[in-house]
Design brief:
Blueprint (H helix, E strand, L loop, with lengths): L18 E2 L42 E6 L7 E8 L2 E9 L5 E6 L6 E6 L5 E7 L4 E5 L9 E3 L4 H27 L3 H28 L4 H9 L12 H13 L18 H12 L4 H15 L3 H16 L7 H10 L11 H15 L29 E7 L4 H18 L4 E7 L5 H10 L6 E3 L3 H9 L5 H4 L7 E5 L5 E4 L3 H16 L1
Parallel strand pairs: 2-8, 10-11, 11-12
Antiparallel strand pairs: 1-7, 2-5, 3-4, 3-6, 6-7, 8-9, 10-13, 13-14
Helix pairs in contact: 1-2, 2-3, 6-7, 6-8, 7-8, 8-9
């Protein structure tokens, strides 16, 4: 099987010719902070705030976009903006019998990449808005490369770039197809060289725009999209790979200052941000916290950039992908949200964030686990801290939970086969005291007698509630069952919310570390 060694081409992900468009969406106020597609609220119509240091408002504090499209004599056209992964509606207008639709509003539009979506929502084209706020667009849907735009001079370079990319992109695609179907190494080499040649022409064209138009919006967008080149294209040692990574990470944001809010309204900023925090930066909470604090500090002078970043980071880490990253969310709450530095959020959103933060604060990796004052089925006191073990597995479960019925026997098998011999002890907590009888019966039927089996009586639960103390569900973030925590000898949390497979691998790693 052949491997195509083509270099990456940096192109706008927007349309350059007769783009087929997903239905644009209104950007609602989110009812929770978690959203994979929409992280921040749509700018409100009544707002007069100008987005970005390079966006200047017209004296009337209003925008007007006139669309002239002879292809249509009726229907609804949409004036949209890119934000995150969505194409969001700024305004809509009826196309009259002369093929004209007028979009307008009593505020200044933030700079960024906008789009016109034609009636039927099947075709659209993108264009820049920056300083100009009174714009006329003449567009024939049969030939979107011939769009004429007046009142927004920044589009001249954008349209030149789109046409060049469209032409070269088609040629590159043809070379890619030819390469994969070539039958000889000579043909493969020819098509790869042709592809690289077209790619170089694209890079040179882009570099010329940046060099000759340093203050243009097109240059700002190209710089923001630019990927750093590797120090060593063919690393031969571990140190070469490490040098490449460090250089790539250090230069990942070259060209983007986090103080130019125009990049928010583009289709490429969010994917670049996601890739950085999910793939580029080290996934330890300390590394992430140090990095995001710096970026939020940079963005404080640009309100919309700051809002976008803080909202996205909050969404990203409220339910983190990797163990231990909940410390990032708690940090965001303590340093920003709880200090009133996210005043655009509504009461319900702040309640969601606050509740989630308080559920995580006492069970972060590395902190001492809260003691659990529980009793066994006979009423005998059996606190967590009375259990002396090299490792303590705390498991919250429900005997009527289908998943628990699958997991608990597997955990018990591993415990008997290996864990117990390595000093592991299990502190097993009934998560619902209404199910005590089912719990006792399950333990007997499945012969799980070697665990410390405990629960909280209703009387104990009432004492905790009346005293307004956090209960075990908050202390251990028990929102589902089974929930597992692994503690070391000093009862510090070293693992949390792992599956039985992950827990077994984690323990094996710990045991191997001791051997070495």
């Amino acid at each position: 099987m052949k491997t195509l060694l083509f270099s990456v081409v940096l192109l706008f992900t927007t349309a350059v010719n007769a783009q087929k468009t997903k239905s644009p969406e209104k950007q609602p106020r989110p009812t929770s902070t978690k959203s994979s597609e929409r992280q921040i609220e749509a700018p409100q119509k009544e707002s007069a705030q100008s987005l970005g240091s390079n966006s200047t408002a017209v004296e009337e504090k209003m925008f007007r976009v006139t669309l002239k499209t002879p292809s249509y004599k009726a229907g609804i056209a949409f004036f949209c903006y890119h934000l995150g992964k969505n194409l969001n509606i700024e305004d809509s207008a009826v196309v009259n019998t002369q093929g004209v639709a007028i979009f307008k509003g009593n505020r200044t539009l933030p700079g960024g990449i906008y789009a016109i979506v034609f009636p039927g929502k099947n075709l659209s084209f993108d264009f820049f808005i920056d300083k100009g706020q009174d714009i006329t667009i003449t567009a024939d849907s049969a030939n979107l490369q011939a769009v004429e735009i007046t009142g927004a001079p920044e589009n001249t370079l954008f349209q030149q770039y789109q046409k060049f990319v469209s032409t070269k992109g088609l040629l590159m695609q043809q070379e890619r197809i030819a390469y994969t179907s070539s039958r000889t190494s000579k043909d493969s080499l020819l098509h790869q060289e042709n592809y690289n040649g077209y790619n170089k022409e694209l890079n040179d064209f882009r570099d010329d725009i940046i060099k000759n138009n340093p203050e243009s919006m097109m240059t700002a967008m190209l710089n923001a999209m630019k990927e750093p080149e590797l120090l060593k294209s063919k690393p031969t040692s571990r140190q070469d790979t490490l040098d490449n990574y460090n250089y790539y990470k250090a230069h990942y944001w070259d060209g983007l200052t986090f103080m130019d809010e125009r990049v928010i309204r583009t289709p490429f900023f969010l994917p670049k941000l996601e890739r950085y925090y999910r793939e580029v930066i080290q996934q330890s909470s300390d590394s992430i916290i140090q990095d995001l604090d710096y970026k939020l500090l940079l963005a404080r002078s640009c309100p919309e950039m700051y809002k976008f970043l803080l909202n996205w980071l909050t969404d990203e880490y409220i339910n983190p992908k990797y163990m231990g990253q909940d410390a990032v969310f708690v940090h965001l709450f303590e340093k920003y949200h709880s200090k009133g530095l996210s005043n655009w959020l509504n009461e319900k959103q702040m309640e969601t964030i606050s509740r989630r933060a308080y559920m995580q604060m006492s069970n972060l990796i590395g902190v001492k686990a809260a003691n659990l004052e529980m009793v066994d089925s006979t009423g005998k006191s059996s606190p967590l801290y009375d259990l002396n073990a090299a490792y303590t597995l705390v498991i919250f479960w429900d005997p009527t939970c289908g998943h628990c019925k699958e997991e608990v026997p597997r955990i018990d098998s591993l415990y008997r086969a290996s864990w117990k011999a390595h000093g592991v002890r299990i502190y097993s907590v009934l998560s619902d005291n209404d199910k005590k009888n089912e719990w006792v019966n399950y333990i007997k039927e499945n012969k799980i007698g070697d665990w410390t089996q405990v629960y909280e009586t209703k009387e104990m639960e009432k004492i905790v509630t009346d005293a307004q103390r956090p209960g075990f569900r908050q202390l251990y973030d028990v929102t589902q069952t089974p929930t597992l925590f692994l503690l070391d000898k000093e009862k510090r949390i070293i693992g949390k919310k792992l599956s039985w497979e992950q827990l077994n691998d984690f323990l094996k790693t710990k045991w191997n570390e001791k051997k070495n």
